[in-house]
Amino acid sequence: MTDKNETKDAKELRDTAFAAMENAYAPYSRFRVGAAVRTRTGEVIAGCNVENAAYGEALCAERVAIAAAVARGMKEFEEIAIASESDDPAAPCGSCRQTMSEFAPDLKITSYSRNGKQVTWRLTDLLPEAFASNHLRGRM
Ligand code: THU
């Protein structure tokens, strides 16, 4: 349930994720998702899912938020909030976990449902033994 001790920062991230959810382009799944990342320098960058008539080209909210931050020169992330229309807080998909891991291997992830439930995870719990750049050594 909604945390009564929610910090101002957490509220800002949650509100930004829900606001981004309103911009989701999800005419095919009708499942709208918003995300907001906080960078090390304190900026908050939003993303939403962006679907396509070619279904497989759908972009997830989390990866859109991270890509938007990277495009603005920010690659260090403290925390991400995910907002969705699910009855239970939605866990990030595998591709999003891998993208998060590239920039923030132990990112704090909080997911919110539309009815006030929330869950917080650490990325290392959701994606243990992640493939990472160190595995490429000797091949680049
Ligand atoms: N989706 C996200 O935006 N984030 C996730 O972590 C899981 C799924 C989107 C993709 C698609 O537009 C819709 O939700 C249904 O899968």
Q: Largest beta sheet: what is the strand line-up?
A: 2-1-3-4-5
Task: Estimate what percentage of residues fall within beta strands.
Answer: 15-25%
Distance between the termini: 47 Å
Q: What hetero molecules are in the model? A: tetrahydrodeoxyuridine
Explained architecture:
The protein has 140 residues and is an alpha+beta fold. The protein has 4 helices and 5 strands; from the N terminus they run αββαβαββα. It has helices at residues 8-21, 61-71, 94-103, 123-126, and strands spanning 33-39, 44-48, 77-84, 108-112, 118-122. The chain has a 5-stranded mixed sheet with strand order 2-1-3-4-5. The longest helix has 14 residues, at 8-21. The N and C termini lie far apart (47 Å). The model has no long low-confidence stretch (mean pLDDT 95). Bound molecules: tetrahydrodeoxyuridine. Tetrahydrodeoxyuridine binds next to helix 2.
Task: Provide a compact summary of the structure.
By secondary structure, this protein is of the alpha+beta class.
What are its keywords?
28% helix, 140 residues, 21% strand, alpha+beta, 4 helices, binds tetrahydrodeoxyuridine, single chain, 5-stranded mixed beta sheet
